[in-house]
Structure of Cyclic nucleotide-binding domain-containing protein:
Amino acid sequence: MPSAFDASNPPFDRLTQQEIGELRAALDIGYLRPGEAVLLPGQKAEHLHVIIKGLVEVRDADGTLNAVLGPKDSFDSRALVHGAAGEDFIAAEETLCYLIPRALVLGLISRNPAFAAFFYSEVSAKLDAFARASRTEGMESVLRARVGEASRGPALVIEGSASIATAAERMQEASINAAYVRDAGRIGVVTGMNLAKAVLLRQLPRETPVREVCHFDVIAVDAEDFIFEALLLMTRHDKRRVAVRAGGEFTGFLEDIHILGLVAGNSQLIPGRIDRARSVADLAGPAQDIQRQVERLHRQGVKVEQIAEITSDLNRRLFVRLFDLLAPPGIREHGCLLIMGSEGRGEQTVRTDQDNGLLLDGPVPEAELEAFRRDFSGALAGFGFPSCPGHVMVSNPLWSQPLEGLLRQLRLWVMERTPEAALNLAIFFDAVGVTGRTGLLAEARQALAQMMRGERALIARFASLVESFETPALGVLSTLMERVGVGSDAIDIKKAGIFPIVHGMRAMAMDRGIMETSTAGRIEALVEAGNFTAPFGRELLSALRVFMEYRLRAQLEAVRRGTLEHEALVTPAGLSAADRDILRDALRIVRQFRELLRNRYALAAFG
């Protein structure tokens, strides 16, 4: 039976063939009766258990069910490596397990860093180590990307009879360095270098037809071809660019710099395109590029927090340029564009809802304001930013008004003391000013902090929003559903993990008058203020990044399948055993944090 051990199951897939042989030679099999306790809190483990068949419940000392482990899941790495079990492990039914001796596991840990990562105590270190394997595949993933992901369009087509001067002007207007030339049924290509050599070296007149300086030996690839196929063509023909076709039509060019952009996530190319935009239509391409690069960066193994940082910075550039293009002089001079939600916190990856607003230092002509509200929100919708279900958008007069009006609204929300008012305060507390009179936002945030000072009951009600959603025990619903033939469960990772951490930190920051907007910044400030220990702060940030990573995977899958309503759903049955273990650790940290909040703010009073 031990010879049937699945060495492809993480973390054992990190072992060498020799190490797998050692492991299989040392394996034993154990039988657990229903109700039998395998490990109890404080007990040291002599084996690492890997479930073959059956179910094992994981419970706290008070009997709370934290998880249900099934085939290929392992336990308990903490008891094995870090001294003693922290939970009860009890067989829920007849269960068979592989038993891997403790001494062998410790030996493998000391020799194999990739395998050792599974046994790290901090979930961030564990997640990062498991992500390294995908990072090593970054270049391979680039070569396996499609040409359409990297090529630039739309294609500029110039008639062959047009002059060199005309061609140069049109290429400059389009901010491109290569164009197609159509002449007597042929298609050629002309580049900026061709034009420069024709005038400077060959000293041709500027009126010379462009057909005289272009070349008609066009090397082309299809938009659905792989990057590596395009690279082969570029190498074979000594070209720095190739033409790209889609549906039989030329759509743009693929250049070596574009392929480099894939490796770097393309983030160094997008800002220039945003800055050069002369119309709203010119921003549509960069807006789509920002979203495409999220998948590209993730495929290359870039950390989720770095993806969020890059994406947030690019989105802010996009919003600022759109504001500059659409806002009339009065709004540009007297207004401040706000972003809120995950955009404001710098934690956005795949775009979700619009969360933005406008703050003014005084009245502006109503017709101008109304036109800007409509055009700004409409343009973002056209770029693929969905409307906010709660209408937290520039188009909503509640969120785009003079400072005096906003301050009155904040006071009303403070006095209302309802969950809806608390949610609106939470949204505003994450606001960041990205352009214009940003001092207006600083004044409003300081005013809100003054209104909340000493309001312990109000802060407690604000914190009670963390109880809006449960943090489930991993595997419990799955077990129940599978037994009645309904299918496996799915966890809403945003509600179960991200929201409790984000809002809990928001509440504690508001309580202490901390003006940081990012969750990581709030955690750091609260640790410095002595609200909790540095190790627990690291664990909270680690757990948040785990949830962000798993949500990003779910979002990208939902985009691919066209099921955006599932963008936050994670199905534990679809995760590897190692990923389930990391998710279980992260959910455990959230439950600890929620208990801290319940005790600190007496949240039972709001039940």
About this structure: Residues 476-488 have pLDDT under 50 and may be disordered. The two ends are 52 Å apart (CA to CA). The first strand starts at residue 28 and ends at 32. Residues 2-119 form a domain with the Jelly Rolls fold (CATH 2.60.120.10).
